[in-house]
Amino acid sequence: xxxxxxxxxxxxxxxxxxxxxxxxxxxxxxxxxxxxxxxxxxxxxxxxxxxxxxxxxxxxxxxxxxxxxxxxxxxxxxxxxxxxxxxxxxxxxxxxxxxxxxxxxxxxxxxxxxxxxxxxxxxxxxxxxxxxxxxxxxxxxxxxxxxxxxxxxxxxxxxxxxxxxxxxxxxxxxxxxxxxxxxxxxxxxxxxxxxxxxxxxxxxxxxxxxxxxxxxxxxxxxxxxxxxxxxxxxxxxxxxxxxxxxxxxxxxxxxxxxxxxxxxxxxxxxxxxxxxxxxxxxxxxxxxxxxxxxxxx
Length: 297
What we know:
Layout: H1 13-20, H2 22-32, H3 37-58, E1 70-74, H4 80-93, E2 102-105, H5 107-110, H6 118-129, E3 133-137, H7 152-165, E4 171-176, H8 178-187, H9 189-192, E5 197-201, H10 206-219, E6 223-224, H11 228-239, H12 248-268, H13 276-280, E7 281-282, H14 284-288
Parallel strand pairs: 1-4, 1-5, 2-3, 3-4, 6-7
Helix pairs in contact: 2-3, 2-4, 6-7, 10-11, 10-12
């Protein structure tokens, strides 16, 4: 039997906030991701909506179930997968999904090569994702209208049915470049109407990439020499103008090469007794021999 509540019935927002511990996830977002202020703001807005929806449910207030399916658009290496993991955690803590895991897939995981192959593949992926979040990277590759023998449309149709009929069991996040994703939604209006939360991930600035590089090195117990910061910053500024730039991913690749050059520099130096500083310091020359200074990609 439904209980009738008066307008002055109290609900404790702070208690609900503390109980779900979503602030822990938001703090992790702030600490682990450099920049991305619009993204962090959008995630907080979504979390606030879902928290208030929980309070409304406590008072039996009728409201449409909040749309949870999402679209993450932006260049590679801008943190889309990391934010999706945090979003899955928030949804789990607020009780909107049962397990809270994130399953990342691409077209190859969903679409078969011949008749009768796509449906079983797509349904198996959906089975694995149930209770959590399904993250479909470069989702626009699901739709290839120029190829009559392509089975991507079949995968999309199955996804649409599950997104509508089992929306309490699964959240789907579509991800990819913004322009391509916009065309993807234009070509699939049924899909577009089911995706209510759009989050755009901006490219990092060169200064943000330098901060990211320092965090990456710290995690691996390395550090820059005093003059290496400026060299890495110049590298980032040049790399951003080149093809195939992938933001933090490009910086990680550059640091991997710098570490290799550092190891080679130490090895061929002839020194056989080393200090800790020798082993943890990336010198400017380890970067100067890298990438755009030597025209590598």
